[in-house]
């Protein structure tokens, strides 16, 4: 697929998707969402891609939400398709069998916050601003904000943001666990890549199983979730990388993982 609204690059196992509609502060229209879905699918299918980073172009915005100009005159059926497309794409991103990092370089509002929450972790710049302002334009979050936000920061705090429509800064996002790390804007990508490189050194099957157990265990009963963990952990023993990891530990050397 040819991309017009995102930039997709791959370098040494790290794929980067950069939202690139600077005139609209990288707001997501349906075309951009289709491009995101396509690029995430490429990341899923290409074994040479080991980690995915999502960020925004420019110094002001990650993604300022769904495109209000496109949504303004939507009929309910069209809006249903638009919200479903967002949900399908973000679930694909969330369940990607390899790690994803949102490098939030400014506004992450509405759909922008929702995209970042479908990533495994959020590294943010000091000028980042999070919010679910949909209520101010007669909407509610439509790409998972009512669900992923309360799971990440708790129901009371999520309701404050979703009902009040306000924004929080990077320090507050860090304080409540929405942001994992905060960096000066000019260091954000570099630091994000350092973490991505650290993940590339891990055994890929282990990363896949860890994500699977966390993602799919979260909404199960504790007994069922623990059972899922047991099975995911036991599956690691079928890999050559588990043997190598333990052998290397006992031989006091660095492991040489081969991804099998
Ligand atoms: N959709 C479409 N265009 C947007 C946009 C959006 N979500 N956010 C910003 N833009 C456009 C503006 O219309 C403006 O375009 P023009 O220059 O052509 O007028 C340009 O980006 C720059 O924006 P501002 O002049 O407003 O910049 P600012 O610095 O004064 O304010 C801002 C920045 C606080 C992010 C402000 O633009 C804003 O409030 N944007 C809307 C945020 C929002 O409500 N997001 C939620 C959308 S709904 C949603 O996401 C639903 C869902 O869950 C799926």
Keywords:
260 residues; alpha/beta; 2-enoyl-CoA Hydratase, Chain A, domain 1; Lyase 2-enoyl-coa Hydratase, Chain  A, domain 2; 2 domains; 6-stranded mixed β-sheet; 4-stranded mixed β-sheet; 11 helices; 10 strands; 49% helix; binds acetoacetyl-coenzyme A
Number of helices: 11
User: Structural class, please?
Assistant: alpha/beta
Q: What is the count of β-strands?
A: 10
Mean pLDDT, as a whole number?
98
Q: What is the ordering of alpha helices and beta strands?
A: EEHEEHHEEHEEHHEHEHHHH
CATH top level of the largest domain?
A: Alpha Beta
| Strand content bin | 15-25%
Per the principal axes of the C-alpha atoms, what is the gross shape? Answer: globular
Q: For this structure, what is the CATH homologous superfamily of the largest domain?
A: 2-enoyl-CoA Hydratase, Chain A, domain 1
Helix content: 40-55%
In CATH terms, what is the fold-level topology of the largest domain? 2-enoyl-CoA Hydratase, Chain A, domain 1
What is the terminal-to-terminal distance?
Answer: 30 Å
Bound molecules: acetoacetyl-coenzyme A
Number of domains: 2
Biggest sheet descriptor: 6 strands, mixed
Enumerate the spans where pLDDT stays under 50 for 5 or more consecutive residues.
none
Explain what this protein looks like in three dimensions.
The model has no long low-confidence stretch (mean pLDDT 98). The chain has helices at residues 30-45, 68-71, 76-94, 111-117, 145-153, 155-164, 170-175, 185-200, 204-217, 222-236, 240-250, and strands at 6-11, 14-19, 51-56, 61-63, 100-104, 107-109, 121-125, 129-131, 167-169, 181-183. Helix content is 49%, strand content 17%. It has eleven helices and ten strands. The chain folds into two domains: 6-200, 2-enoyl-CoA Hydratase, Chain A, domain 1 (Alpha-Beta Complex), CATH 3.90.226; 204-250, Lyase 2-enoyl-coa Hydratase, Chain  A, domain 2 (Orthogonal Bundle), CATH 1.10.12.10. With 260 residues, it is α/β, with parallel strands linked by helices. Strands 1-2-3-5-7-10 form a six-stranded mixed beta sheet, with helices on both faces. It has a four-stranded mixed beta sheet with strand order 4-6-8-9. The radius of gyration is 19 Å and the shape is globular. The chain binds acetoacetyl-coenzyme A (CAA). Acetoacetyl-coenzyme A (CAA) binds at residues 24-25, 27, 64-69, 86, 107, 109-111, 114, 133-134, 137, 139, 141-143, 145.
